[in-house]
Amino acid sequence: MTATDSHEGTGRLAGKVAVITGAGSGIGRAAALLFAAEGAAVGVLDRDGAVAEETTAMVTAAGGRALALTADVSKAAQVTQAADAVAAEFGGIDVVYNNAGVDSRGSVAVAEEADWDRCFDVNVKGTYLMTQAALAHMGPGGSIINQGSVAALVGVMNFAAYCAAKGAVVALTRSMAVDLAGRGVRANVICPGTVYTPLMEPMLRARGDGDLDLGLQRTLVKYPIGRLGDVADIARVALFLASDEAAFMTGSVVAADGGMTAQ
Ligand SMILES: NC(=O)c1ccc[n+]([C@@H]2O[C@H](COP(=O)([O-])OP(=O)(O)OC[C@H]3O[C@@H](n4cnc5c(N)ncnc54)[C@H](O)[C@@H]3O)[C@@H](O)[C@H]2O)c1
């Protein structure tokens, strides 16, 4: 399945309302389509309003319910307004998929301060702000899904700020799990391996010394399963964590990486 394939839902998220950040592209768009096909009403949030509208139109065309939201997850007022709009439209929030993320440039020896701050603002602060805003509308049975990365688990060359920020997302998830269990809300983090999306293209190109195909080859050898991930591979894991099937899972760090971190 790719992001645009149709999916015959079986109602695994029937009656639920989900907010997905960074849902205008890549993994977030695939998740929006999958969650909606499984019966959720979806708040499609992206800082780029045009791509949020595109995803929303795709969901609607497939017979689902979605609301496009333009917001930067690192800005508290924008995030609060978006969460309030979803709750007003669909009557609450059950699931938050904190998927919006940005990469970073360079090893710790050369990483630039502005790039470091941007990476933490979006990946870490955005996860905190979106979760806080959604919790105001979330009751027992709620599920928070955070987007980590294999970069939280192993060192990825020339990705210092990204590794650190995704490590912080894993730690924040454990903190959320402990703090929110009493109100019946679960929190888990997915650590995807490399999925070919616009986000990863600069990294893959750099790894191939400017040659994208070479970068892909050099990446592939790290994957015992013999392929890189697809957006749907990650969206399906998010679907499971969002659903009541994962009712006993909280604080889990779920690698979805074709065995990359197993070796
Ligand atoms: N692609 C991979 O290989 C991979 C691997 C591990 C983890 N991840 C993580 O998965 C998530 C999604 O990655 P992707 O590859 O689908 O990326 P992508 O670049 O295709 O999509 C990311 C989306 O997030 C949006 N976004 C960025 N900053 C935002 C902000 N401040 N507020 C709101 N929206 C914002 C972008 O506009 C874009 O639409 C990220 O957190 C990324 O770090 C990706």
From TrEMBL:
Residues covered by the Ketoreductase domain: 16-196
Keywords: Oxidoreductase
A molecular-function term among this protein's GO annotations: oxidoreductase activity
InterPro entries, A to Z: KR_dom, NAD(P)-bd_dom_sf, Sc_DH/Rdtase_CS, SDR_fam
UniProt EC number: 1.1.1.-
PROSITE patterns in alphabetical order: ADH_SHORT
One Pfam family cited in the UniProt record for this chain: adh_short_C2
Keyword Secreted assigned: no
Membership in a protein family: Belongs to the short-chain dehydrogenases/reductases (SDR) family.
Name of protein: SDR family NAD(P)-dependent oxidoreductase
